[in-house]
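Recap quiz, item 2
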Amino acid sequence: MSNAPPLLAARGLRFARNEQPVFGPLAFSVDAGEALLVQGDNGAGKTTLLRVLAGLLRADEGTIEIDGRPAAPGLRARAIAYLGHLPALKADLTALENLHFLCGLHGRRKGQLPEHALAIVGLAGYEDTLARQLSAGQKKRLSLARLWLAPAPLWLLDEPYANLDLEGINLVNRMVQAHLREGGAALLTTHGAYAAPPVRTRMLQLERAA
Amino acid sequence: MHPLVRWFHQLGSPPYFDRFAARWTPVAYIAGILVMAYGVWAALFQVPADYQQGDSFRILYIHVPAAWMSLFVFGLMAFYSAIALVWRIKLCEILAMACAPIGAAFTLITLATGSIWGKPMWGTWWDWDPRLTTELILLFLYLGVIGLYNAIEDRRSAARAAGLLAIVGVALLPVIRYSVVWWNSLHQGQTISLFGKSHMDASMLPPLFAMIVATKLWFIGSLLARARADNLRREAGKDWVLRLARGTEASR
Amino acid sequence: MMASAARALIARDARLLWRRRGDALQPALFALLVVVLFALALGGEARALERVAAPVLWLASLLAGLLALDTLFRGDAEDGSLEQWMLAPVPLSWLVLVRTFMHWATTALPLLIATPVLGELLHLPRAQLPVLVGSLALGTPLLSLLGAVVAALTVGMRRSGILVALLALPLYVPVLVFGAGSVAVAAQGLDATAPLLLLGAGLVLALVLAPLAAAAAIRIALT
């Protein structure tokens, strides 16, 4: 166990919408090489929590630290890769063109090429297919390819198993495993316990606020 | 902590603000009405008629305070919005959004009285006078803020978006005014300004001061009343609101 | 980082434009419609038209730009791209600036090129054409930047319709005044440099401030 500060540490995190509490106060941390599984029913606030951690929403109370430092926007952007409900793919661009754009936007992990990433997620041969022609599962795989190419160490994955078949679920687990092995960390939400990745995992249970 | 600062913090608490507003709204309204009564009476009966415009100039006693208020309220709205955006203070969001309809009303009064005042001089109900044209655009800015605030579902996001618009508007208002003045001079040469070159005689000023004070008091009363209503609506369902509602019913 | 993000965004938008080439001509087509309607309403007589030709063309460009504003952020908001822009390591305001530039290039530039042709339809006096095109060249980017703030404020909404026009109008007034006014000044035989310089100054200011305001608005709208 190293003495390095956790990749992500949250303390006293609280969020309310329209005066209704959504979650909080929460305190947890994610170390490098670790996965945190956030479980809860629909409406328990899992997506909101991830969006708060990613920086898309601001918490009403509490602090978030990345690598022991307060989460400033620049630091957060470089440290976090977020996979949300919307795939962020342009329907009129091909799979490869979408990846090229997203790599230009977020940067690209050293030694990884978009073509290889497509092969890893099982979309080899679909490089020149327009995103509108891909099925929901294939779009999800394309998003996973984007995730694979991202240089950020911390993955925030909101319902990563949605739209995927059994093989796709295994793919996600394999990717998370490889990512953790290289010193990254992952935070996943799911409302089913069946899809836990085979890595050192801790659980965070969210319950719907009364 | 300095007592004034402490009072500001207290004011941010919704129940405290509700009590504060409930107490001071009638005071502001009554004081405003009294001063306005004096102002209107003095404007109509005490002040001598203008040697150029006769009695029709008397409407300036409503037009001028209303015009100044329309601008002042917009600036105040932008000020509250800036605080709300930077420090995320809910009360300032509420106050900023409560300013908008009041400011819009003052703008409408300015336009209507300006039009009535202009009729004897221009011969028409409307002339593209630079001041009135700027007021018209100001009205659209107000309507935009109100429209945006009402179009967004989440009240806090709505207040912040409308507040940002108010800030952009207040920054552009001098530019708009300058451009309208330039435009007017380009196409119409010299216009008959509503005020003319004559400055006001000292005997004409007291009712004007009275009306300026009166409109400010009225504005304070109206602002507190609207802010109180918005505050209650946002806090609906909370214990203190339920107790307030039940308490009112029980005392009937 | 900022340069590579800008290159990537420009390449993306250029590709998207190419895939939907027809859409690029819509603003120019709308301007043509406006011109035709004005001509029909005014009677088609050369003397009547040439007096109003420049202002009508300015209005046509402004209205076409207003209509095109809807496509500035809507597509990216709906498919989650805007979210990723917010999470990128480059400033959101930079991406907004690049996006607005590409949007202007694809919607207003064709219109600018079509202006001489549209001018012929309205019997625009030849002498006014250079000032008109100059004022539009400075004014339409300014309208795009101001429009970006309005589009950002309404990005979350489904049917914003008249609200966008209402919000944009007060912001557009100075641009319209100095833009159309510069041609009026030139038509009177006077020097139109002053209003054109004001437009230029406004454009420089807007290049810096409008993306910042629009980025703030996007953050507010997407929470």
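Strands of chain A lie at 8-17, 20-30, 35-39, 61-66, 69-70, 80-83, 154-158, 185-190, 201-205.
Chain A touches chain B through three residues (CB under 8 Å).
End of item.
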